[in-house]
Amino acid sequence: MGMADLGNRLYTGESSFDFVGRRKLWFLVAALCVAVSAVLLVKPGLNFGIEFEGGSQFRVSESSDTQAAREAVESVLPGTVPEVTQVGTDGVRVQTETVSTAQLDQIRQELATALDVPLENVTSSAVGPSWGADVTDKALTALVIFFVLVSIIMALYFRTWAMALASMVALVHDLVITAGVYALVGFEVTPASVIGFLTILGYSLYDTVVVFDKVRENTTEAFEDRDATFAQAANLAVNQTVVRSVNTTVVALLPVAAILFIGDLLLGAGTLRDISLALFVGTLVGAYSSIFVATPLLVALRSREPRVRALEADVRERDAAGVEQGGSGATTAGGTA
User: Fold this and answer.
1) Residue ranges of the domains in the chain?
2) DSSP string, 242-293
């Protein structure tokens, strides 16, 4: 069975996966992932770049000897532990604490001598701690403003607080897990990483809105026709959009995976790995949350509403009447025979 055929069967209801009915399982998986990510954010914690914490950075081109670079810096700053990484196939990046102008020039000279490159091949830059703190504050402010605006827009668009709350929980789920993966692999968090976080939150929100739009359409019909419960109508909406979500996710992951795995691991383009990791993990987690977290949580939040419970009672009464009529017909037929 191809994806197109499966999508048609799911859309018409011929085939169905019980996403909503098994919501306790999905919630457990999500809670465990968030809990593990939260622990990782505490220890080992995020590896913030100098843009956030301040410090000095040196880049050496046409050399990849990280050990010689480390020894050169330690000769000027004894007792320090510089962060030395290889950039590409012929470059080295060294990050240290904030140093004086004299030490900056001395380290440049030592790096040029130790790695046997011209002095102009060694560049340096410095970020003060106050500027780094300002960048951190602006990044957090951007996230807070994003969540506030999204909450308002979702509540106004769908006219229900439950959908806004469910979408916010899904976004927090995506953000925490993506940050936890960053802490696990030790990738440096840079302003590009923050851009990646905001991008995947937007992608996840888009996916959730598409599903919620179908949920609203199906549940509105259910309230009018009284032929399905709120949970059944919502589950049908997820089934009708799941193939689209999977296809969109796969298409979005292909170029990101090329940047992350081919560009970074094979070609050594390390400057792109911070944003590509955020996009790769966030896209996967966002697809999961829109299907397994957002809609099941919406059903759980609205399950106690009088209108939803009345609909469930009507459908249950109709089904019971249908079963009773079917049973009576069978008895009569048996007697006649």
Assistant:
1) 3-48+131-318, 55-127
2) HHHHHHHHHHHHHHHHIIIIIIIIIT--GGGHHHHHHHHHHHHHHHHIIIII
**Which of the listed CATH numbers 3.30.70.3400, 3.10.20.30, 3.30.450.20, 3.40.50.1820 matches domain 55-127?**
3.30.70.3400
Q: What is the pLDDT of residues 176-217, one digit of tens each?
A: 999 999 899 888 788 778 888 888 888 888 888 889 999 999
Alpha carbon 288 to its chain's center: 9
**DSSP secondary structure string for all residues of 33-96:** HHHHHHHHIIIII-EE-HHHH-EEEEEEES---HHHHHHHHHHHSTT---EEEE-SSSEEEEEE
pLDDT for 205 equals: 86
Provide CB contacts within 8 A for 23, sequence distance 6+: 296, 297, 299, 300
**Rounded alpha-carbon distances, angstroms, from residue 38 to 12, 16, 78, 142:** 40, 34, 35, 21
Can you tell me the distance from the alpha carbon of 304 to that of 296, in angstroms, rounded to the nearest whole number?
14
> The whole model's pTM is what?
0.79
Which is higher by pLDDT, 249 or 264? Answer: 249
Q: Assign domain 3-48+131-318 to its CATH superfamily.
A: Multidrug efflux transporter AcrB transmembrane domain (1.20.1640.10)
Distances (CA, A) of 62 to 24, 124, 139: 55, 15, 34
One-letter amino acid at 28 equals L
What average pLDDT does this structure show over 101-128?
Answer: 88
Burial (CB count <10 Å: 0-12, 13-18, 19+), residue 177: buried
Q: What is the phi/psi pair of residue 43, to 5°?
A: -145, 120
Does pLDDT of 335 surpass 60?
A: no
Q: What single-letter amino acid sits at 135?
A: V
